[in-house]
Amino acid sequence: MEIRNNYQVDYCFILPNNLRNQLAKPYGILFINDHKLFNFLGARGSSRIITVGDVVTRTLLSHNIIPFLPIIDGKTKRKIEVGEEIISERVVNEAGLIRLSAILKIERLLKSETSRGKVLYVEGEEDLLVIPAVIYGRNGDIVLYGQPNAGVVALVIDNFMRKRVLEIFTKFKVVRCDPKSE
């Protein structure tokens, strides 16, 4: 899927209410134990890891595992926590939607080897950015995201998973966004 923005207008892809319950379910392997998660990651060898969320990112970093692309918003369960991570890139993305500018930034970071380890800080909410991470990640990449009050979900990107995520994403409503500063 290629998304172009020839007019430099930001669009918002809004999550419809009828998809909220569907997206609340884990879309990969749910790990409730860090030890099993680290064994899984070790078995995957050289796969690139994309983390979406502060807790999962901090957990990997505390075990000296540096994600290819960590995506954080500085909040855990809506409580603001200022982390010590070095912020390399910033993007605006409000709750309940995905901004086109966020999609394009994730696409650029995932396509560039020089982006390895850069932290993408989201002013707003990062939860739905799992979607562009799956769409633009490579086959074999692992997307890790937190499942509230449950654990960590590991989603291995392949053509089937990408197609499944694209089917969900096409149900989002597209509107022109209010401009926000980045």
Automatic annotation (TrEMBL):
<feature type="binding site">
    <location>
        <position position="73"/>
    </location>
    <ligand>
        <name>GTP</name>
    </ligand>
</feature>
<feature type="binding site">
    <location>
        <position position="55"/>
    </location>
    <ligand>
        <name>GTP</name>
    </ligand>
</feature>
<feature type="binding site">
    <location>
        <position position="75"/>
    </location>
    <ligand>
        <name>GTP</name>
    </ligand>
</feature>
<dbReference type="Pfam" id="PF04019">
    <property type="entry name" value="DUF359"/>
</dbReference>
<keyword id="KW-0173">Coenzyme A biosynthesis</keyword>
<comment type="pathway">
    <text>Cofactor biosynthesis; coenzyme A biosynthesis.</text>
</comment>
<dbReference type="GO" id="GO:0016301">
    <property type="term" value="F:kinase activity"/>
</dbReference>
<dbReference type="InterPro" id="IPR007164">
    <property type="entry name" value="GTP-dep_dephospho-CoA_kin"/>
</dbReference>
<comment type="function">
    <text>Catalyzes the GTP-dependent phosphorylation of the 3'-hydroxyl group of dephosphocoenzyme A to form coenzyme A (CoA).</text>
</comment>
<dbReference type="GO" id="GO:0005525">
    <property type="term" value="F:GTP binding"/>
</dbReference>
<keyword id="KW-0547">Nucleotide-binding</keyword>
<feature type="binding site">
    <location>
        <position position="54"/>
    </location>
    <ligand>
        <name>GTP</name>
    </ligand>
</feature>
<feature type="binding site">
    <location>
        <position position="56"/>
    </location>
    <ligand>
        <name>GTP</name>
    </ligand>
</feature>
<feature type="binding site">
    <location>
        <position position="126"/>
    </location>
    <ligand>
        <name>GTP</name>
    </ligand>
</feature>
<dbReference type="GO" id="GO:0015937">
    <property type="term" value="P:coenzyme A biosynthetic process"/>
</dbReference>
<comment type="similarity">
    <text>Belongs to the GTP-dependent DPCK family.</text>
</comment>
<keyword id="KW-0418">Kinase</keyword>
<keyword id="KW-0808">Transferase</keyword>
<protein>
    <recommendedName>
        <fullName>GTP-dependent dephospho-CoA kinase</fullName>
        <ecNumber>2.7.1.237</ecNumber>
    </recommendedName>
</protein>
<keyword id="KW-0342">GTP-binding</keyword>
